[in-house]
Hints:
Blueprint: H1 3-11, H2 16-29, H3 35-48, H4 50-59, H5 65-77, H6 81-93, H7 102-113, H8 116-128, H9 135-147, H10 151-160, H11 166-178, H12 182-194, H13 201-214, H14 217-230, H15 236-248, H16 252-261, H17 267-279, H18 283-293, H19 302-315, H20 318-330, H21 337-349, H22 353-362, H23 368-380, H24 384-396, H25 403-416, H26 419-433, H27 439-451, H28 455-464, H29 471-483, H30 487-500, H31 505-517, H32 521-534, E1 542-547, E2 550-555, H33 564-580, H34 596-604, H35 607-618, E3 625-629, H36 635-648, E4 652-655, E5 660-664, E6 667-668
Parallel strand pairs: 3-4
Antiparallel strand pairs: 1-2, 1-3, 4-5, 5-6
Helix pairs in contact: 1-3, 3-4, 3-5, 4-5, 5-6, 5-7, 6-7, 7-8, 7-9, 8-9, 9-10, 9-11, 10-11, 11-12, 11-13, 12-13, 13-14, 13-15, 15-16, 15-17, 16-17, 17-18, 17-19, 18-19, 19-20, 19-21, 21-22, 21-23, 22-23, 23-24, 23-25, 24-25, 25-26, 25-27, 26-27, 27-28, 27-29, 28-29, 29-30, 29-31, ...
Amino acid sequence: MDTNSCASLLEKCTDIQTLNQVHALMLTNGCHQNMFLQTKLITMYAVLHLEDARHMFDKMHKPKVCLWNVMIREYARNGLAEEAISLYCQMLQAGEHPDNFSFPYVLKACASAAALLEGKEIHGHVIRYGFEFNVFVANSLVHMYAKCGNLKDARHVFDTITQRDVVSWNAMIAGCAQNGCPSEALRLFNQMQLGGMSPDLLSLKSVLPSCANLAALQQGEWIHSYVIRSGIEFDVVVSTAFIDMYAKCRMVKAARRIFDKMCRRDIVSWSAMIGGYALNGQAQEALKLFYEMQLTDVKPDLATVKSVILVYAYLAAPQPAKWIHCYIINIGFETDVLVGTALVDMYVKCGSIKMARQLFDNMSEKDVVSWSAMIAGYGMHGCGEDALELFYQMQKKGVSPDQVTFVCVLSACSHAGLLDKGWQCFVSMIRDYGIKPSVEHCACMVDLLGRAGRLDEAEDFIQNMPPEPDAGVWGALLGACRIHSNIKVGERVANHLFELDPENTGHYVLLSNIYAATGRWDGVAKVRAAMKDRGLKTKRGCTLIELNHRVHSFIADDRSHPQSVEIYTALESLSGKMKNAGYLPNTSLVLHDVSEEVKEQMLWSHSEKLAIAFALINSSPGTPIRITKNLRACVDCHSATKFISKIVKREIIVRDAIRFHHFRDGLCSCGDYW
């Protein structure tokens, strides 16, 4: 059998059994001693059975660089990065010089292992052997540095490439996108085209996540049209990237159109669409699609599970939450620390703080995010002392708190009015952990001081805080001015906010509330006029309640519900009982200069009261009532709910935009401190 025939047989081998037969034939005919065929044979073994290839390779006397390259390449391709790097070092020790193929293979291994030190050493070899201007080698260096998180060196190498190809651009764009620099990724993508380089499929896959993260809809739509014009095939990855981009740009219908057109969907596609619905608050659509996915052969992954948990957290419905928890146990994901943490957060947001703590205590592994989630949960429910106790326990366990942990702790202190302990934690954060205060930390401290009525100190804190105060910081102080009806400071703070965040209607509403509470109707009119001039409309309050696996929503003065007559009748009945018990409507909250009687009627049609009345009609006596509101709890509704809880002898759990309120026997867990 001649060399050509033997080589042809080797190339036709597609499985290890056939290759073993050809190998035996070569041994019989003596062809195995031919260097060309020997190289071919080891190459085929490397592709089909790496261990056999290594066994043959180790028996060779002074293998050539091409064989070293084959082995390094296959180790890297099979995810055995350390073995690939080790083999490269052995090649150098054997006196064999690397060539322009050796470097891309070993640098790929360094990239997958995030082996930056080894990568830098190999970069030195690239220069020593004169391959620094080889575009293929340079591209591999850019990719390696970017994968190792060293964008500075990646960019340095990229800038030295005189004849960049599309791979060069893709490596740098992907590096920026993966290392939290989406704006730079988009800038490079545009620069690439201005330089006359047409993007390929990989370019699009690299840049679309940046469009998604920046919500850069215009750029994303241009890329979409480019793909259509260029006739580039919409594979699963590109389609999924477009789904993610449109969903994060709040264009859920566009995302769904792409999803529906996909001929084949993998778990990433399903997760992107379900996650898109969850991100945009379309809980029912997300769950509908999740149930639809279960009818297919596609099995959920961690991303899917986390998206669905997010949906149940949004719905704040304990019974469905328990169902998804059981489902997660059945598919074996409960032990994952990220899933466990997400479940803790879900139970917190469903108002089941005890269940959240039970799950937290049963977690076999906890990271700093898990501890922070539970601390934040206690804070949201007004359990400041419990949050602090858990924080101290965390430190005793040797888990170092991070920036987010301290935001959770300080927020918990703020919600519970623990001013002194909040200050102690703030000082400890700086002194003991070397964490510089962020605007989030400072906003919590302003909130602490402001709620305690120390408005001047809070304002002084803002003037002297290290980071530049943003709208969140000034907003915390304005909220405190509303609590204490302080017009003087409130006007001053509002002016800062109107400059920093002129489109946010919440600031105008807070100032208007301060004016209304003090009878300054001229001030209310002035705020209204300012909003009208800017074309701003207030965000409408909406309250949700889940009952019998269905979500019902209510807005103020809502009469669209099928049970509307019964709801208003129930409220009228409650009204008399509440007034007899001492309830007085807080008509100062009505931002209209109308009669007291009309103001009272307007208060009774608030969405929270409608939702509670609906629950009283349709749920069993004695069972807890759970509602969710998209805005901060109204002062009058808060007062009314305390009376209702005592009259009907039921616990009422209200989740507003800020925190949870547990109403029992005429009292609220917040202690009227929110």
